[in-house]
TrEMBL record, chain A:
Residue ranges annotated for the Acyl-CoA dehydrogenase/oxidase N-terminal domain, each copy included: 41-126
Identification of the protein by name: Hypothetical acyl-CoA dehydrogenase
Organism from which the protein derives: marine gamma proteobacterium HTCC2143
Coiled coil regions, renumbered to chain: none
Any Gene Ontology CC annotation: plasma membrane
All residue ranges annotated as the Acyl-CoA oxidase/dehydrogenase middle domain in the record: 130-224
Family that this chain belongs to: Belongs to the acyl-CoA dehydrogenase family.
GO molecular function, one term: flavin adenine dinucleotide binding
Presence of keyword Oxidoreductase: yes
Superkingdom, natural source: Bacteria
Length: 401, 379
């Protein structure tokens, strides 16, 4: 960019004013905590409008290249925006997958045509993205994906199904891992990664009712659906490499995301605050010695997460195992969210027996839902148990077999 | 304290160029000076540490790190001491560095001008200082003092028994808490004024340490050896936090050391035709220990940077709570994962578990600190 960059302090002020003026009024529904919880058109539209507004104001994809629709600015400006969006408790960015993993992936490994075709629409919400990785019979064993993509001239014919395709009913695009060759020595070599369209005959998304009773997840079925070979990102047969890169973005182990937050964070501080509004033996629960100890442990887990983030930017303090913190962020953050939901629910005494939908539910049943919803994090993107295998093997060097 | 010009600041954690340099030097120094065979040999020795290694540490300037330049130190802070204590803890290198550093801080915070001028340059030059804080009651509260001092003219006559005074026998000076007219006070005792019969060696859980009981009955020292009464309470409070900080550094190092020997065993020992490290029950536990250690190190370096600010107390207590529990668990699993060998004295795992008790159960264990954190964070 040829024009001079705004000074940070002035920019902070500008962003603060814009967000104050433009943030949407609180919704009439219980706000979903992440894109995985968006179950109704009403919720989706509320969130989509907000992302579009933020992008149009120039506050999303600020560090992505201008030629593809980004702002071409240093990351620090997006950081300022991100902080302000969180500070003012604004809704999360609904095109989470596009902004945080499909987009960075395309920018990192895609062709110029692909970048031109997809990046701007990810930012503007013109195209919502979903992910076709897991299959009903193969959860965490991604390398075993069996959805078939058979070459027919310049096209591929897709047959099979993908599960946990969040937002698939709303999405125009899917990042799709499919098997293009069933006769390879290694199962990994038969995989190809596609940037697939959803509006194709033979592709059908069906919502799945989650353990919370809400919709949000989908299963997507492929019946002789035809897509162009131009949809391949990376090489035919080189899909595993692309998938691994995607997971790096998904787990936050690699940067380059468009910005904006991905969830309405539930914080340990909120649980501490809740403890003052609920009761034990006629007194606020935060005066109960055993409750206090459990709360301190939870607060420490939250504090450790943020300090880990700070420390990981000081090379001398992570030199021995440079990837250790980055590779465990997803596991620790999702397990912490679940503990927050669990502890905050139990704190409510007999009121913890209510659920979303009852007028007497504390905070609208938010904590109960937080707990159940948190399993999407501890299971999705590689379960906690798989993460421990990966960290044990890659960070600690323990043997696989 | 001199200004660090090249300080990295990252959302709560500050890290100076000096810390970076010291960390690097101390890592190789500790590896070089304290291979496990040397640690084992020193367990059998009289003093428990190698005088030549101590001299090298003195020559490196490590005893004067947190002592101002005017008293012969280099004018840095305890944050820089943290970066050498951590790698020493990892190799179980036991020296009087921590006690001497803490004694110097007590002097700086509550010593009289004459005391500072007399003792600080000596300490920076390697004169060992021991701390006599513990008593029969075993209470971690250092203001719970039953030993007494009675002032009469120019002297103060001491009485009572101090316990768990590490390295007392080789110390030049011993700083003791005593009650004068019911008020917890500090007094410097020259080792020359302690009769050898008053000093009795104790058997302690960490065999790399040397600990003594001191019978103060009949010992008299000049009244000028009493610290500034007005500054003593605050100095003792800060001492408690500094002690926790350095123990946390030692515990973080020790956790890494326990992990080192365990990982090595998991990668070489085979059962049922598999390396035992491939079993998930062991692998996953090691990952839990790793992530706990990462948290503890983050608390440690955060606390090192903010100890003298409003955030200091909470930061230090979090570091101590986290590192104490981690080290205990890492040591416990180190023994268990070595199987039958772990049950033997020959296996090094017990050394780490013993050290974990040693660091956790000084200046308060995890529960003790979480109780105080609850007051700081929840009320």
């Amino acid at each position: 960019m040829s024009e001079t960059l705004p000074c940070i302090e002035a920019f902070k002020k500008e962003v603060n004013q814009w967000v104050t003026k433009n943030k949407p009024a609180p919704p009439t529904f219980l706000m979903p905590q992440s894109f995985m919880e968006v179950g109704t058109d009403e919720q989706f539209e509320y969130l989509r409008e907000w992302q579009e507004k933020v992008y149009n104001a120039g506050y999303l994809g600020m560090s992505w290249p201008t030629e593809y629709g980004g702002g071409g600015m240093p990351e620090i400006y997006q950081d300022v925006v991100n902080k302000e969006l969180v500070a003012q408790n604004t809704p999360f960015m609904v095109n989470t997958l596009g902004l945080n993993w499909a987009g960075p992936l395309i920018l990192n490994m895609g062709s110029d045509e692909q970048k031109k075709a997809y990046i701007k629409k990810i930012l503007s919400t013109e195209e919502i993205w979903c992910q076709g990785f897991s299959e009903p019979d193969y959860g965490s064993d991604l390398g075993n994906a069996q959805l078939k993509a058979e070459r027919d001239g310049s096209e591929f014919v897709l047959n099979g199904s993908k599960i946990w395709t969040t937002l698939a009913t709303q999405a125009q695009r899917m990042i799709l891992l499919a098997r293009t060759n069933t006769n390879t020595e290694s199962k990994y070599d038969g995989l190809t990664f596609f940037l697939a369209p959803m509006n194709v005959d033979g592709i059908e998304a069906q919502p799945i009712k989650k353990l919370t009773g809400e919709h949000g997840f989908c299963q997507t079925f492929f019946n002789d659906a035809r897509i162009s070979e131009d949809c391949i990102i990376g090489k035919e047969g080189g899909g595993w490499l692309v998938a691994m890169k995607t997971l790096m973005f998904e787990r936050g182990a690699e940067g380059g995301q468009a910005g904006g937050h991905t969830s309405m964070p539930v914080t340990v501080e909120e649980v501490a605050e809740l403890s003052k509004r609920v009761y034990r033996d006629g007194k606020p629960a935060n005066q109960d010695p055993m409750v206090r100890d459990e709360l301190v442990k939870l607060l420490m887990r939250g504090k450790a997460m943020s300090l880990n983030g700070a420390r990981s930017k000081i090379p001398a303090l992570i030199s021995e195992r440079p990837t250790s913190i980055a590779m465990s962020v997803k596991m620790l953050a999702t397990e912490l969210s679940k503990s927050i939901g669990d502890q905050a629910t139990s704190l409510q005494g007999s009121n913890s027996l209510y659920f979303v939908g009852d007028d007497y539910a504390v905070d609208g049943g938010r904590w109960q839902r937080t707990y159940f919803q948190a399993f999407s994090g501890t299971i999705g993107g590689g379960t906690t148990q798989i993460q421990k295998n990966i960290i044990g093997e890659r960070v600690l060097g323990l043997p696989k077999k | 304290m001199s200004e660090n010009t090249n300080m990295i600041k990252k959302a709560g954690i500050t890290f100076s160029e000096e810390q970076g340099q010291l960390l690097e030097i101390a890592e190789s120094f500790s590896r070089d000076k304290a291979p496990i065979a040397t640690v084992r040999n020193l367990i059998e020795s009289e003093t428990g540490f190698d005088k030549d290694v101590w001299t090298e540490m003195v020559n490196l300037g490590w005893l004067g790190i947190a002592i101002p330049e005017e008293f012969g130190g280099s004018g840095l802070s305890v944050a820089e001491v943290v970066t050498i204590v951590e790698p020493m803890g990892r190799m179980l290198l036991a020296t009087p560095l921590v006690s001497t550093t803490l004694a110097a801080q007590l002097l700086l915070n509550a010593g009289t001008t004459a005391q500072k001028q007399d003792l600080l340059p000596r300490m920076a030059g390697g004169a060992i200082a021991a701390l006599a804080m513990h008593e029969e009651h075993g209470d971690w509260d250092i203001s719970h003092v039953t030993c007494t001092g009675v002032i009469s003219g120019d002297t103060v006559t001491l009485s009572g028994i101090k316990r768990l005074v590490t390295d007392a026998k080789v110390a030049d000076t011993i700083l003791a808490t005593i009650s004068i007219a019911g008020i917890p006070s500090l007094v410097a005792i020259d080792s020359g004024s302690i009769d050898s019969a008053a000093l009795q060696r104790e058997t302690v859980i960490d065999e790399t340490r040397r600990s003594y009981r001191i019978n103060l009955d009949g010992i008299s020292v000049p009244a000028t050896n009493i610290f500034d009464a007005e500054k003593t309470a605050a100095a003792l409070k800060r001492y408690h936090l500094l002690s926790c900080l350095l123990l946390s550094a030692e515990a973080c190092g020790g956790t890494a050391g326990a992990m080192d020997i365990t990982l090595n065993y998991l990668n070489t020992r085979r059962t049922f035709d598999r390396f035992i490290g491939s079993y998930q029950s062991l692998k996953h536990t090691m990952v839990d220990i790793l992530t706990d250690l990462e948290a503890a190190r983050s608390f440690l370096y955060y606390a090192a940077g903010v100890i003298d600010t409003d955030e200091g107390e909470a930061a230090v207590r979090m570091a101590k709570a986290q590192s104490s529990d981690n080290f205990a668990y890492a040591g416990d699993r180190a023994i268990q994962f070595h199987g039958g060998f772990g049950f033997t004295y020959e296996c090094d795992a017990q050394l780490f578990r013993r050290r974990a008790f040693w660091t956790a159960n000084q200046s308060g264990d995890a529960i003790y600190h979480r109780k105080r954190l609850a007051t700081l964070l929840l009320d």
